[in-house]
Amino acid sequence: MQNLASHHSFHFPAHCQQLVTLETVDAASEWLAHHREQQWLILGEGSNTAFIDDYDGTVVKIHITGKKVVQTEHDFLISVGAGENWHELVTYSLQHHMYGLENLALIPGSVGAAPIQNIGAYGVEVASFIDSVECLDVTTGQKQVKTTQQCQFGYRDSLFKRDWRNRLLICTVTFRLPKKWQAVTNYGELAELDNPGPQTIFNKVVSIRQSKLPDPAITGNAGSFFKNPIIPVALYHDIASRYPQCPVFAVDNERVKIPAAWLIDTLGFKGKQHGGIHCHARQPLVLTNDGNGNGKQLLELARLIRDSVLSEFGIMLENEVQLIGKQGALTL
Ligand code: EPU
After folding, report:
1. Tens digit of pLDDT for each residue in 259-298?
2. Count of domains for the chain
3. How far apart are CA 162 and CA 167, in angstroms?
4. 99 and 135 in one domain?
5. CA 155 to ligand 1: nearest atom
């Protein structure tokens, strides 16, 4: 039995049968060939995963490292091992005058996890910089390369979360950063910046995140617990007739996005505590573990929030964080 507390950012003391770290594509291929029939799951840095209970299988940590840069006339192509740390990659790219990832600074987690949920922040989603993803097919051991189009990226979504879940193991991600850089500063506080360069945007994003979001190394959490819901315009009009101050972002002609933080805040959950789990006082979309919380309490508070939002607003919140129970993925 292996304690997983230091392998997921909620830090619940759940256990697994075995923990394996694989450092190369060949080692991953070899391991898969001998363990296909067993129960296992792939874990990066565990910053978007909560082990709710002990897991009855093997946790496979991917620690494939390395970076390779190739230039074309218009772009830098950076191929990065899945086990590299995301924020270190952002820092590295800026230090080497390759720009574009600065809005995604300080997002916890590994490079290999970035495409799975299409990490995004401050007006940028990683999908717009992904050129291709190299994977291993876990059933055949064959290498496969998926293009951006094949990945079907959406808001916090991709085929890696759906059809390819537990079928493809991500080994390397190749990013395409255009040499002609364009700032993205339309989101919130970034709009205050006057003609900023990439380093200024990076610094601003780091300081906003540090001021709002709890550091998972100190306070257990996995970032936004829920996704921002995308709802029909008609439902938004119904809500706005009762709550004219409800913030809204256009998605297309039929749908809008509402900040889940606002829904949760409006229902008074900010700062609320359930056992050792808290609804964060500065960003209520984040649930935290004060060190004494457990998976059961997390599920209870998350379900209470989800049910309260459904009853008041008619919106069903979906969890963004992956929940793992004895047999694997759990639904909230
Ligand atoms: N809001 C409130 N009360 C609060 C905080 C926010 O009502 O206490 C409302 C405000 O209307 C605010 C809006 O929520 O304008 C949006 O808040 P914020 O800018 O903090 O962003 P978010 O939509 O809550 C998303 C991502 C974050 C990302 C930020 C910044 C999701 C699920 N979350 O949060 O990503 O850092 O935007 O781009 O899309 C994560 O995925 O783990 C994550 C932290």
Report:
1. 999 999 999 999 999 999 999 999 999 999 999 999 999 9
2. 3
3. 10
4. yes
5. 39
